[in-house]
């Protein structure tokens, strides 16, 4: 894609998200979501491959359906209450609103489109879908949180964690695996949202850091499958080590950053007399930890036979990503700042 066009679509993507984030009106929020979808479609279709075209069609159908349901919910609310305010959805529109936002976020049980679309596009576009595209629907979820049933959010969160953990076990394609990882993390986010919105903000920030770090390193090393992970070491020993630590952080292994939100969410569930749910949540996240550890094993401990021509390949690569160093440090070593971040978010 032409650089100018690419920049234009990215600017539209940013602007449309800002419209939704700053709006307190159903119609403005809907306009922001629609502009967001229209800007995302050319980015998904840019590889000009049949699989990319299929992913674009699926993304368009899913997102427009969800946006139409949100507009319908807003119209019903305006008809019932006489106002278009986001913070006061009508009683009849809560189910419509939750269904539409679940579909937009790719949270189970409305997650089936998400792995397929990530698999059909490039790693860079998959990064945008997995991070930036979550912001606008989550903002609407935050704004309407007071009227949403807590028990429903907790059950949806647990469902998402189960789906993300168990279905991710079978994946060999890294984009699909990252999609199920995102589904599982969104489940943790829903649980945090039901308990404590401040904790949900911290959880989302840490999710953004970990997912962005992982995708950038996958883009740099050009790995697409689990078998490719074993070939990273000859090309970049440093990035192979960083990928291993990032995967363990995604799995929530202490003392890495990914442990902090899970620890705080389980603590809040226990304090709210939901110890059985906290225990079940922790147990259901173990399969996800298994596939992260398995990937880390492929990356650092399972390497193909190294010949003389591949031994020093890492010396030939001089391109560096300036963004990678700070976000990698935050992905791994932010746990000591947990208390400060928890109290200030």
From TrEMBL:
Its EC number is 7.1.1.2. Residues 23-280 form the NADH:quinone oxidoreductase/Mrp antiporter transmembrane domain. It is found in: Mitochondrion inner membrane. Keywords: Electron transport, Membrane, Mitochondrion, Mitochondrion inner membrane, NAD, Respiratory chain, Translocase, Transmembrane, Transmembrane helix, Transport, Ubiquinone. One of its GO terms (biological process) is mitochondrial electron transport, NADH to ubiquinone. It is an enzyme of class 7 (translocase). It catalyses: a ubiquinone + NADH + 5 H(+)(in) = a ubiquinol + NAD(+) + 4 H(+)(out). Residues 289-341 form the NADH dehydrogenase subunit 2 C-terminal domain. It is a multi-pass membrane protein. InterPro entries: Complex_I_Subunit_2, NADH_DH_su2_C, NADH_UbQ_OxRdtase_chain2, ND/Mrp_TM. The keyword Kinase does not apply. One of its GO terms (cellular component) is mitochondrial inner membrane. The chain crosses the membrane at residues 28-47, 59-76, 151-170, 177-195, 201-219, 240-261, 273-293, 322-343. One of its GO terms (molecular function) is NADH dehydrogenase (ubiquinone) activity. Signal peptide: none annotated. Belongs to the complex I subunit 2 family. PANTHER family: NADH-UBIQUINONE OXIDOREDUCTASE CHAIN 2. Core subunit of the mitochondrial membrane respiratory chain NADH dehydrogenase (Complex I) which catalyzes electron transfer from NADH through the respiratory chain, using ubiquinone as an electron acceptor. Essential for the catalytic activity and assembly of complex I. This is NADH-ubiquinone oxidoreductase chain 2. It comes from Pristurus guichardi.
């Amino acid at each position: 894609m032409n650089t100018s066009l690419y920049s234009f679509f990215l600017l539209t993507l940013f602007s449309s998200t800002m419209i939704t984030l700053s709006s307190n009106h159903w119609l403005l929020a809907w306009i922001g979501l629609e502009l967001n979808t229209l800007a995302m479609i050319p980015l998904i279709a840019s590889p000009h491959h049949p699989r990319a075209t299929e992913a674009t069609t699926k993304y368009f159908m899913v997102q427009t359906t969800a946006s139409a349901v949100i507009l319908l919910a807003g119209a019903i609310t305006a008809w019932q209450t006489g106002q278009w305010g986001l913070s006061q959805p009508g009683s009849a529109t809560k189910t419509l609103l939750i269904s539409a936002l679940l579909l937009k976020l790719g949270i189970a049980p409305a997650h089936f489109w998400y792995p397929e679309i990530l698999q059909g596009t490039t790693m860079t576009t998959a990064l945008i879908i997995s991070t930036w595209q979550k912001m606008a629907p989550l903002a609407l979820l935050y704004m309407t949180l007071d009227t949403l049933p807590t028990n429903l959010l907790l059950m949806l969160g647990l469902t998402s964690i189960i789906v993300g953990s168990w279905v991710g076990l079978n994946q060999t394609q890294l984009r699909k695996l990252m999609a199920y990882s995102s589904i599982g993390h969104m489940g943790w986010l829903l649980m945090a949202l039901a308990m404590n919105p401040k904790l949900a903000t911290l959880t989302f920030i840490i999710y953004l850091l970990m997912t962005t770090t992982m995708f950038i390193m996958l883009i740099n090393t050009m790995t697409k499958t689990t078998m490719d992970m074993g070939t990273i070491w000859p090309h970049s020993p440093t990035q192979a080590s960083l990928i291993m630590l990032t995967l363990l952080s995604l799995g929530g292994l202490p003392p890495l950053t990914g442990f902090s939100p899970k620890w705080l969410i389980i603590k809040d569930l226990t304090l709210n007399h939901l110890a059985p749910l906290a225990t079940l949540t922790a147990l259901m996240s173990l399969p996800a930890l298994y596939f992260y550890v398995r990937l880390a094993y492929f990356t650092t401990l399972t390497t193909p036979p190294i010949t003389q021509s591949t031994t020093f390949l890492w010396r030939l690569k001089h391109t560096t990503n300036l963004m990678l160093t700070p976000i990698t440090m935050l992905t791994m070593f932010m746990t000591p700042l947990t208390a400060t971040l928890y109290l200030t978010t």
